[in-house]
Amino acid sequence: MYKFSKGLTLVLFSLALSACSSSPEDNDIAAKTSPDVLYSQARTSMELGNYSKAVRSLEALDSRFPFGPHKTQVQLDLIYAYYKMDDAASGIANIDRFIRLNPTHPNIDYVYYMRGLVNMQADSYLFHDMLNIDRTDRDPKNAQDAFKDFDRLIKTYPNSKYAADAQKRMYSLKNRLAQYSIQVAEYYIKMNAWSAAAVRAQSVLETYPGTPSTERALEIMAKAYGELGQNQLKQNVLMVMQANFPNNEILAN
User: Fold this and answer.
1) Alpha carbon distances (Å) from 169 to 20, 44, 49, 121, 242
2) Nearest-CA neighbor of 150 among 124, 128, 174?
3) 93-117: pLDDT as tens digits
4) Would you say the pTM of this structure is higher than 0.90?
5) CA-to-CA distance for 70 and 35, rounded, in angstroms?
6) Least confident of 6-10, 44-48, 104-108
7) Residues 6+ apart with CB under 8 A from 55
8) Lowest mean pLDDT among 2-16, 138-152, 182-196
């Protein structure tokens, strides 16, 4: 029953995506509608959670009335709507355009925050999460970009109302990036590339200190240094483990 419900969810999700495309009738109506009416329709669609319909109205406004009375808010609404539709490519493109055209806008901190959210969303895989598949070994570029986006927000706009949430998300991203480095280090172990494994594990301690991956990084370093005959380095690692993880099984050997 559990597997059936998972499959049913995927089917329903696919059907929902297929229903998002616009019709020629929608385009004809948009072409004959005033900017105020179009924007009102877009806002109503967003409030109802119909983001695909909202995007159609907003895109029509953006293309037909690029200098209209709602031009800036249209761009901000498009960014949010693309995020809700999980359209990272369109979201990032519109965010970067907004930053380029409106670098001193009062809501620019929000735009940087949304850039982090969009990149963080792009790093997650809905189907993997639904099916409980661990894919911490996937390409971390989006996670790295999201981390940079949130870091820039906090450093440039420390008093932003989005700074606190950005800080929390950076902690989660730091854990994810540390896990990826551990996956790489463990791959090097399988290939008997002990020096590369040690360097990668050490990068976890230096770049992502305080994460749950710290203990595993130390284990890898101890093993790698042992295989390399670097006994003094191995002892140094074991001393760190003794101070921080005294119950680790390696210390009992």
Assistant:
1) 30, 30, 25, 11, 31
2) 174
3) 999 999 999 999 999 999 999 999 9
4) no
5) 8
6) 6-10
7) 78, 81, 82, 85
8) 2-16
Higher-confidence position of 190 and 251:
190
HSE-CB of 43 using CA atoms within 13 angstroms: 9
How far, in Å, CA of 5 to CA of 121, rounded?
Answer: 24
Task: Give the tokens for residue 179.
Answer: 């896990």
* pLDDT over 80 at 13, yes or no: no
- CA pair distance 70, 197, nearest whole angstrom: 54
Q: Calculate ∠ Cα 108-105-100, nearest 5°.
A: 75
Residue (of 134, 116, 117) closest to 125 by Cα position? 134
Within 8 A by CB and 6+ apart from 147, the residues are 116, 170, 173, 174, 177
The one-letter code for the residue type at 242 is Q
Closest of 213, 178, 184 to residue 198, by C-alpha:
184
Q: What is the mean pLDDT of residues 130-134?
A: 48
The two tokens of residue 61 are 């406004």
Convert the pLDDT of each residue in 170-217 to its tens digit: 999 999 999 999 999 999 999 999 999 999 999 999 999 999 999 999
Provide the token pair at 158: 């420390």
Structure tokens, 244? 């921080």
Three-state DSSP at 180 gives helix
Structure tokens at 90: 């369109």
Terminal-to-terminal C-alpha distance of the chain: 46
One-letter amino acid of 179: Q
Q: Under a CB-based contact definition with an 8 Å cutoff, are residues 95 and 118 in contact?
A: yes
